[in-house]
Amino acid sequence: MSPLKAACALALATALSLAAALSLAAAPAHAADEHPDVWTELNETYTATGAYAYEPFGIKAGYARTETCASNAAGGMGYHYLNKEYLNSLDPATPAALLYETGAYGKRKLVAVEWVVEDTGQTKPPTLFGKDLDNTVLPGFYTLHAWIYKPNPSGLFSPWNPKVKCP
Q1: Burial letters for 120-152: b for 16+ Cβ neighbours within 10 Å, e otherwise?
Q2: What is the pTM of this model?
Q3: Nearest alpha-carbon partner for 81 in 45, 108, 117
Q4: CB-based contacts of 133-142 (< 8 A; 24+ apart in sequence)
Q5: What is the pLDDT of residues 52-111, one digit of tens each?
Q6: In this structure, what are the phi and psi dihedrals at residue 133, rounded to the nearest 5 degrees?
Q7: Cα–chain-centroid distance for residue 147?
Q8: What is d(CA 127, CA 11) in angstroms, rounded to the nearest whole number?
Q9: Which pLDDT score is estimated for 38?
Q10: Under 8 Å CB-to-CB from 81, ≥6 apart: which residues?
Q11: In contact, 164 and 101? CB cutoff 8 Å
């Protein structure tokens, strides 16, 4: 191998190593308790719902605004905006609910998404992203939250986020 080719190969290997290290460091901290590919799987959700960070776009897409903010001793969920068309969907791109909290200047800020599936007496809970949906939070339904817009110290898929406060 010529000295020029060797230098180029070394530079490329160094750049790739640095890029790999930086990409690992850039992974959200609250994803540490999840399997390594979870953010790759959630990319479709993030891409499909990113525009809804601007609340009027979520409403225009069929998510109904609410004035009730959900919270308890474990934390908050925020305001649920439900799109009935997506009830019972397990498609990563079509969560049934968007969760907002009150942000600066009273504007609502997107913090999470949620899938909602009716409990029809299934023998096993539905699963998404390798997680079983939970039927203990909303009677008659299985739910799964994904805190992809606000870190949740309780876990990426935990229903309640101690950092979300209701007014």
Answers
A1: eeeeeebebbebebbbebeeebbbbbbbbbbeb
A2: 0.79
A3: 108
A4: 134/159, 141/116, 141/117, 142/116, 142/117, 142/118
A5: 999 999 999 999 999 999 999 999 999 999 999 999 999 999 999 999 999 989 999 999
A6: -70, 150
A7: 4
A8: 44
A9: 86
A10: 58, 59, 63, 64, 65, 66, 97, 98, 99, 100
A11: yes
Q: In whole angstroms, give the CA distance from residue 99 to residue 77.
A: 7
How far, in Å, CA of 159 to CA of 141, rounded? 13
Which helix (DSSP H) or strand (DSSP E) does residue 132 occupy?
Answer: strand 131-132
Alpha-carbon span 106 to 109, nearest angstrom: 9
Coil, helix or strand at residue 53: helix
13 burial type by CB count under 10 A (0-12 exposed, 13-18 middle, 19+ buried): exposed
Structure tokens at 155: 């876990």
- What's at 7, amino acid-wise? A
What phi, psi does 151 have (nearest 5°)? Answer: -60, 145
Which tokens sit at 50?
Answer: 């990113």
